[in-house]
Each structure stands twice: as structure tokens, then as C-alpha cells.
Specification:
The structure holds 2 protein chains of 2 kinds. Chain A has strands at residues 5-7, 10-13, 19-24, 31-37, 43-50, 53-56, 65-68, 75-79, 88-95, 105-106, 110-114. Chain A is mostly beta strands. In chain A, strands 2, 4, 5, 6, 9, 10 and 11 form a 7-stranded mixed sheet that branches. Chain A has a 4-stranded antiparallel sheet with strand order 1-3-8-7, with no helix packed on it. Chain A starts with a strand and ends with a strand. In chain B, the strands form 3 sheets. In chain B, strands 2, 5, 6, 10, 11 and 12 form a 6-stranded mixed sheet that branches. Chain B has a 4-stranded antiparallel sheet with strand order 3-9-8-7, with no helix packed on it. A two-stranded antiparallel ribbon of chain B has the order 1-4. The chains are: A mainly beta, B mainly beta.
């Protein structure tokens, strides 16, 4: 059973470009979470999605950021018009249950660098 | 809102030393508590968890006990190895919404020297 797959592992974008980060959850998991890790900091929650639905986006910046988890295919975190401050590691986690006691399995992350 | 506070690092120990990494939390409801470990360039791996008060999570020689009275979940290991060098994150699942959303501490870097 493959783990959570994120791609690309590293992404370089110029200021003003768009970044698309992909996450394929573990087989059988329908709950996906995105987190952002700024340098020397812990992970901050961004958004929680269940198939085709955004359940909690309280950690998403109001502008330029969006997320989706379609019926078929990976979850996508999209950042439009990237700025230097978006440089960070973005981690996706999946869970079989959208509940607190369930273990979340993390991908290896996408490290975004904005130049 | 809910929050997690960890002791600041880096923590530098010699091999076979005793490890404690302090973690305290503030939460409404009844959160589950977790320790995750992150090796360089990698994602997070669950190390151990506890889902209710007085539960003890353990794995690979690491232990932590869910102390409701002191709102703590300190990580301990009796004898560390060089291979334990990593960043350790304490986290809680937000209890009020219970959606599996995790709140993380800032992480503690552990360096173990031979």
C-alpha cells in the first residue's frame, strides 16, 4: 500500500507565476489535510477536504490560495501569483477517518521556492 | 484557540543519554495528543499517540503520558541513539470540531552525538 504521494518534491517559481501542488492520499483514505511549514517553524493547518468538499479552510490565506479534492484524481493546492513569502514546505496528510483520534499519514512534502 | 508549546531546541545529547522533550497544551474539549518525528528532507512520521487522559503512548523506546491535570505530554526515552537525531513535533487534534485537524508545536531539534 503506497503511502501519501506528493509531487513535485521541489518546485521553483518566479514571482507572479502559479504553483500547483499535488497530493494522492493513501488508498482508501477520503480525508485530506494540507499544512504549511515555514523555515524554522512548526506546521500550520491550511485546509481540510473530503472528496469533492472543502470541510474547513480556516487556515487558508484569503487570496491567491485554493484547494480541491475532486472525485477522481489527486488533491490540488493552487497558489496564484506567488510571492517570496510563499516559499515553504507544503505537506499533505490523509486519514481514513476525519476524526481526531485517527492517525494522519503525511507525504514527503513539496518544497516551494519563489525566486 | 487550541495551542501547543514545546521546549525550545536544539537539544544536544550524547549517545545513551536520557531524553525529555517537554510539551504542554491548551485545548477545549478532549483532544488526542501526538508526537511526530521529521527526519531531514522528509515528511512527518507518527511516533506515538494517546487519545485520553492517563493513556501512555509508546514506540521504539519513546514514551509519553497524557496528563490532563498538568496539560502535558512530555516525550521521554531512556537511551538515545545517533539515529534518533531529528525534529520532534508535539501535536493535538482539535477537540471541539474533532475533524482530525492537527495543531502543532514549533518543533524541537534533537542532535545525538556518538
Amino acid at each position: 500500500n503506497a503511502g501519501v504521494m506528493q509531487n513535485p518534491r521541489h518546485l521553483v517559481r518566479r514571482r507572479g507565476q502559479e504553483a500547483r501542488l499535488r497530493c494522492s492520499p493513501m488508498k482508501g483514505h477520503s480525508h485530506v489535510y494540507w499544512y504549511r511549514q515555514l523555515p524554522e517553524e512548526g506546521l500550520k493547518f491550511m485546509v481540510y477536504l473530503q472528496k469533492e468538499n472543502i470541510i474547513d479552510e480556516s487556515g487558508m490565506p484569503k487570496e491567491r490560495f485554493s484547494a480541491e479534492f475532486p472525485k477522481e484524481g489527486p488533491s490540488i493546492l493552487r497558489i496564484q501569483q506567488v510571492v517570496r513569502g510563499d516559499s515553504a514546505a507544503y505537506f499533505c496528510a490523509s486519514s481514513p477517518l476525519g476524526r481526531g483520534e485517527a492517525e494522519a499519514f503525511f507525504g514527503q512534502g513539496t518544497r516551494l521556492t519563489v525566486v | 484557540g487550541d495551542s501547543v508549546t514545546q521546549m525550545e531546541g536544539p537539544v544536544t545529547l550524547s549517545e545513551e543519554a536520557f531524553l525529555t522533550i517537554n510539551c504542554t497544551y491548551t485545548a477545549t474539549g478532549y483532544p488526542s495528543l501526538f508526537w511526530y518525528v521529521q527526519y531531514p528532507g522528509e515528511g512527518l512520521q507518527l511516533l506515538l499517540k494517546a487519545t485520553k487522559a492517563d493513556d501512555k503512548g509508546s514506540n521504539k523506546g519513546f514514551e509519553a503520558t497524557y496528563r490532563k491535570e498538568t496539560t502535558s505530554f512530555h516525550l521521554e526515552k531512556g537511551s538515545v541513539q545517533v539515529s534518533d537525531s531529528a525534529v520532534y513535533f508535539c501535536a493535538l487534534s482539535e477537540g471541539s470540531s474533532n475533524t482530525g485537524k492537527l495543531i502543532f508545536g514549533q518543533g524541537t531539534t534533537l542532535q545525538v552525538k556518538p
